[in-house]
Give the backbone structure.
Amino acid sequence: MAEMNAIANVRAIEILDSRGRPTVQTTLRLASGAAGTVSVPSGASTGAAEAHELRDGDAGRYGGLGCLRAVAHVNGPLRDMLVTRTVTSQADLDAMLNQADGTAAKSNLGANAILSVSLAWARTQSVAKGIPLYQQFADEIGHGAPTHLPRPTVNLFSGGKHAGGQMAIQDVLITPIGTDDAAVAMEQLVAVFNAAARLCRETYGMRLLVADEGGLAPAFPSIETAFDDAVRAIEMAGLRPGADIALCIDVASSHFFDGVAYNLDGAALTAAGMIDRISGWLDRWPIVSVEDGLAEDDWEHWPALRAAIGDRALVLGDDLTTTNPARIRRAIASKAANALLLKVNQIGTLTEAAEALRLVREARWAVNVSARSGETEDNWLTDLATGWAGDQMKVGSVTRSERLAKWNRLLVIASETGLPLAPWPSQAG
């Protein structure tokens, strides 16, 4: 059996993501003949502490964003290291990958190269064992069969780096909180999106054009107008704001923080002023999650943000935590947040992402498993969110095939398993 589990070949190619930028697709084949192929995503709104995504830097090809060097590292040194090797576990494989790179940020071989092999091994194992990919992910971290599905958080309105900066904050999202049925939830979310599209056409004269993650991006006169319009779209769909559908916001504050002030809608806010602004939003609108409410290195003030929000909403770290165990430990110790946006390409291997998951679960944090703005039609993320018992899943809107591939996988898993959506966390650490 060990010989059958030996790696027979690893091969990568350069493909294009949803923004037309190169990324890496890797196929791993075992001696048994079992094979798995994965594509890795790429972010636009990236934290400074993220693992290094290797790009070619050749301005004459894809504007310097080519991934031929990362592909060559998979097809060269990583393939040479792995072929004929028998890998006993995900942790065993990922340790070899990290040792081959030799840097904390994976800057030699590239996090995109390393992650593609890490994920390809997991998919190949699920094929070899004849089990769903979500169960392979669960087995590797000692979980049993999943008991629930991640609750969707869907991009309704986009701003920031995902939509040309016409709105300072990055996303206004919607999440279903009145049902535990995935099919009903998706029906409600699509109804709200369609209502919002009609609203944008009537109010802003906007055609149905969408941003990087499929969200609508009208020229809102203010952030508060976006919140008002989101609530209005929920009502237009015949649903109840705060009862059937709630709002989540990705503030992405690092993008409008200049090192001194938070420059928001013409105001230069101190950290205290920013916290007051967010707290006021929660008083007025049915917001249940606040992502990156302060800048990624404004460690001094994150505990005050969490204290001000209290139990009204999740305090979700993305740029703050970057799925990085060291940053997560600091956030836990300082009581800076109580929820993690988990993105495996921020850290570069499944094993390190699993360590991030373990840390936040021990601290009783909630977990939202997230895609990136540059995605492919690969749907492994939904299996990961299911197998790792994610509370929520964030993959973008209900338009664009690279987003719908993940939501459709959620519907398939729901149909096959009959599992309910996870409850919205009533308390977090």
